[in-house]
Amino acid sequence: MQAGLATVLVWGLGCVADVPRPITGRCLCGGVTYSVDAEPVWQGVCYCANCQRQTATAFSVIVGVPSKTLTVQGSTLASFQTASEGYQSTTERRFCSACGSPIFSTIESMPGVAFLKAGTIDDASWFEPTVEIWTRSAQPWAPHFENTMPYERTPG
Ligand SMILES: [Zn+2]
Ligand SMILES: [Zn+2]
Fold this sequence. Notes:
The protein is an alpha+beta fold. 15% of the residues lie in helices and 35% in strands. The chain starts with a helix and ends in a 6-residue tail after the last strand.
């Protein structure tokens, strides 16, 4: 039994180590590319009304990385600011103005972290959400993820 548990633990750690270094990604047209030389600090999904509109679907799939490790290139990188419901904090949403892909966001109240839209990552097969945020605005038909901690709003 103990050997089995140890195997599972090692396998679990192996999954974490499967995150490529650097993490690279791009928008749909390729005009904007990025690279991150760090481990993710946050993996989750956001059901807020603004993410629903920006992604045109039920939630954002997000990977938080230390913003100082994120390098972004491309002249079509544009930005749009939104205010979170019920919070004073604003979210700066970066996207490609040529193809419309959302790429990453920064949140005023969470300095130092850039939140990548996981769909733009070249290889996001390792993604494993641990948190669901803004579940209070989730659509009744939205899917949810196992082994995640739900928050009605943004934690903190
Ligand atoms: Zn683009
Ligand atoms: Zn959101």
